[in-house]
Specification:
The chain has 304 residues and is an alpha/beta fold. It has helices at 6-12, 15-27, 30-36, 41-55, 71-99, 111-128, 141-149, 197-202, 213-224, 238-246, 293-303, and strands spanning 60-63, 66-69, 103-109, 132-138, 155-159, 169-184, 205-207, 231-234, 252-255, 267-271, 278-286.
Length: 304
């Protein structure tokens, strides 16, 4: 078990020592590392010895031809480089903030996520960074995913689904929502505190296009119990579905945030007591593409 004392390391280690340690690995000699960092060789040797004492392990293996990192030294070097990378990123973003952040951020999102979560956030962001141009592409979940992979979007706002997992994408948790059944006033659902999948499949359903994440989840849930979704009416948007439900033509399924207080004066909602009705919304970014400062600042605002 490691005896590394993290609080002591934080208090005593300094960036010059870490940079000197990295220079020794790169130059393969402490003397050359000392010259590179403009410090006396004896002082450089003392700093590295002190660093080894703090870590409690040998970091450099001394050889006749120079020095080489031990396994622990290699591990420390990896983390030290990350520290300097983060500091460089901070420097770039600080320059941007002091000079006025500029650039363009391309977002891809479904309409539901855009209306419920992003519109207000984008308004706040553009007020803080008026020189940044925000470009928004609205589409269904699979196409949003495809736009990110194709490089047509910097950030993708996705409902997490098993079929859209990719090694090329880093998923950042953003929000959660749930699906509810929406019914006309006076419907039998009004007496329930929650509804099941069976309740929904037995109802007269007003649905939206099958390529949407919502309908994909419903069809998959029905298949798992050996049933199919029987649609009474199918329309192109959640707004159209609400209108048909309001007219008493059936029941629809929507994210809970899609209904305003005005909608709830003429429509009822009830939670769907099923795991598939709980949804995770993520921000997708490509792992191998560094983001511009403006995109990083937007992510920080959205996830803070």
């Amino acid at each position: 078990m490691s005896t590394l004392n993290i609080p002591m390391l934080i208090r005593k280690v300094d960036l010059l020592t870490l940079r000197l340690f990295l220079a020794a690995i790169e130059e393969k000699q402490i003397g050359r590392a000392a010259a590179r960092e403009n410090i006396a060789p004896s002082a450089a040797t003392k700093r590295i010895q002190d660093l080894e004492d703090m870590v409690g392990e040998k970091l450099l293996e001394r050889r006749p031809t120079g020095v080489a990192p031990t396994a622990v030294g290699q591990l420390l070097a990896t983390h030290a480089r990350r520290i300097f990378d983060h500091l460089e990123e901070f420097r770039r973003e600080l320059d941007d903030v002091s000079e006025g952040v500029r650039g363009r951020v391309r977002l891809a999102s479904s309409k539901g996520i855009l209306i419920r979560h992003l519109a207000r956030e984008i308004g706040i962001f553009t007020a803080n960074f008026p020189l940044v141009e925000i470009e928004i592409h609205e589409d269904i979940n699979p196409n949003v995913h495809a736009a990110l992979l194709a490089g047509d979007a910097d950030l993708a706002f996705l409902v997490a689904t098993p079929d859209l997992v990719s090694d090329a994408i880093e998923a950042i948790p953003y929000r959660k929502d749930r699906l509810v059944a929406v019914y006309p006033l006076g419907h039998p659902f009004s007496t329930k505190t929650s509804v099941s999948l069976a309740d929904l499949l037995d109802a007269q359903l007003v649905t939206i296009p099958s390529g949407t994440t919502l309908m994909t989840r419903l069809h998959e849930a029905a298949r798992r119990v050996g049933r199919s979704v029987q649609t009474r009416l199918s329309v192109a948007s959640v707004e159209a579905a609400q209108s048909l439900v309001r007219a008493g033509l059936g029941v629809t399924i929507q994210p809970d945030f899609m209904l305003s207080s005005d909608d709830l004066e003429t429509l009822g909602t009830v939670p769907i007591a099923e795991d598939w009705a709980q949804r995770e919304i993520e921000i997708g970014v490509l792992k191998d593409r560094p983001l511009a400062s403006a995109a990083n600042l937007l992510i920080r605002q959205l996830t803070r």
